[in-house]
Amino acid sequence: MRRLSLRLRLLLAGAAAIALSLAVAAVALSELFAAHVERRALAELSVHLDQLLAGIERGADGTLEIATAPADPRFARPLGGLYWQIEAEGTVVRSRSLWDYTLPLPTDVLTDGAGHVHHLVGAEGELLLVYERFVRLPTRLGGGAARAAVALAESDLALAKRAFMADLAPYIALLALVLIAAGWAQVGVGLSPLARVETRVAEVRSGARTRLGTDFPAELRPLASEVDALLALREAELARARTRAGDLAHGLKTPLQALLGEADRLRHAGQETGARAIEEITAEMHRHVDRELSRARVASRAASARADAAQAVARILRVIQRSGRGAELTWTSNLPPGLIAAIDSDDLTEALGALAENAARHAHSTVRLAARRQGGQVLIEVSDDGPGIAPERIETMMQRGARADESDASTGLGLAIARGIVEAAGGTLTLSDAAPGLRAAIALPTAPN
């Protein structure tokens, strides 16, 4: 249950509540209908009893008899489901439907004209609804008391109840479907602000927004405020981290310069090996400091970063075509304007510069630069016509200090630095065989409008 979505959990809980409520309502309606049917049956029995009492006469032999019996044919059919019985002057007169059975009326005390209702067991165990009344016979009938009763088989009432439930069931089912659909719509409306929260978080992550804002329902406003407070805290921590990194770089600058001076003195003293070792260690420390400063810079500018790929490449070409190995190569570019990536312009220039320098170092004659939009990303490719590298060495080449040519005097940090910058901006850097040469591809998220 914990892994179910909030929407599905609410829907299941609502459907269960609706089903339970409608089941209880159906039972209550059934009982209410049964009570109504019983009242109607008692009213009908009272009418039959009035007809029965009105039909009492004295026969020729002086005994009481029913001159005019109630007209319902069930009274005349044995065990027909409708019965009457009169007790007077020590004798019992009953309907043909009772045959030779006598209703076992309880020995309760009735006042003149009072009626009682009983639930009794009749012939062959059938349940009967009985309505009895105590009356005083008129003078013309010789006076005296009579106890009259009319009974109805309760199976007729049960049958009416079942028929009612059968008619009610489809409507209950339809009502359940309508209520569940309404509940689903209500859940959708109620949870729609959560979708807005998801959208805002994605916008914060992409840099389109810096805060979630407060235009949410009251229930979600505390959550949005806490997230915004967390974002503000993160920004403050990043600012402090950048400050500490700058202080660290400044603090290391003088000791590193002193080490370089010591290396120079050792070289003049003829200790070339020791001087070279100190210079290598110092250079490595410089690279670590510069790298951490670069990471802090990338993190601080990621939220609002935008860079035009064509402009970044143009800046790189203006420099690299005029210096060293780059001046000896042919540089071709195919970069349409308007390809805006979500990365700081200086960071993109640094990453592409590292890739361009690597390509220039290994190219025979040509380096190609191209860019295009691919889905929601900007794809920038730098490829050369050099010897390339074996596919199994591609991942190794992305590690710090790795070099395709071990005789090369480069530090082997260019690809690693470019990869770190690109990944910090939410992109990827991949290497592949260009046949001939090596292709480096940077994929970066497109900057929001």
What are the defining features of this structure?
alpha+beta, single chain, five-stranded mixed beta sheet, 8 helices, 18% strand, Helix Hairpins, Heat Shock Protein 90, 449 residues
Percent helix among the residues? 40-55%
Mean pLDDT: 82
Name the poorly predicted regions: 400-412
Instruction: Tell me the quaternary state.
Output: single chain
Strand order of the largest sheet: 4-3-7-6-5
Q: If you compute it from the alpha carbons, what radius of gyration comes out, rounded to the nearest whole angstrom?
A: 50 Å
Biggest pleated sheet: 5 strands, antiparallel
**Cα shape:** rod-shaped
Q: How many H/I helical runs?
A: 8
Instruction: Quote the distance from N terminus to C terminus.
Output: 41 Å
- As a percent range, the share of strand residues is 15-25%
Question: How many β-strand runs?
Answer: 14
- Kindly give the count of domains: 3
Task: Outline the secondary-structure elements.
Elements: H1 6-54, E1 56-58, E2 64-66, E3 82-88, E4 91-94, E5 115-121, E6 127-136, E7 145-153, H2 154-206, H3 221-268, H4 272-301, E8 307-308, H5 309-320, E9 330-334, E10 340-341, H6 345-362, E11 366-374, E12 377-384, H7 394-397, H8 414-424, E13 428-433, E14 438-445
Parallel strand pairs: 9-11
Antiparallel strand pairs: 1-2, 3-4, 3-7, 5-6, 6-7, 8-10, 11-12, 12-14, 13-14
Helix pairs in contact: 1-2, 3-4, 4-8, 5-6, 6-8
